[in-house]
Amino acid sequence: MIPSQATQLQIDSAIKEYAHTRSALLAVLHLIQRERGYIAVEDESWVAARLDLPPAEVAGVVSFYTMFRTKPPGRHHIQICRTLTCQIRGCRELVKHLEKKLGIQDGGVTPDGRYSLITVECLGSCGTAPMMQVNDDYHENLTLERLDALLDSMK
Length: 155
Ligand code: FES
Prior knowledge:
By secondary structure, the protein is α+β, with helices and mostly antiparallel strands. The chain has seven helices and four strands; from the N terminus they run H-H-H-H-E-H-H-E-E-E-H. Helix 1 runs antiparallel to helix 2 and helix 3 crosses helix 4. The structure holds FE2/S2 (inorganic) cluster. The site of FE2/S2 (inorganic) cluster (FES) has 12 residues, from helix 5.
């Protein structure tokens, strides 16, 4: 799918920030995902053509980083950190609680498209573990009670 005119202008601007067009790959993928919510195979082809890269290289980058999604997320996209500090501070219990409450497993989307859940590696907020990111917002120092309150506020 071709990005909107507005996103293409942002992409042109992002490319100018780099000495080599190919170096803009992560920035361009972020812009496309921001518009569409995920990166489809046809987006990868468009990016490969725009940056003069092999499609396999774009596909490899998209599949390597958990920050890139290849299918539509829920309206509330929950990413919960599973790395060491968050584990020590109880993230497993939080993940189990979320899976039970939302009725989905890690990587799933609720049938109504309201929530998606994925565990990810460190989100760089170890000092306030356990934590999660919902869309663009961080929620830190989580407890089961705080998690329930956040879920209630998302309804
Ligand atoms: S270990 Fe969870 S934010 Fe770093």
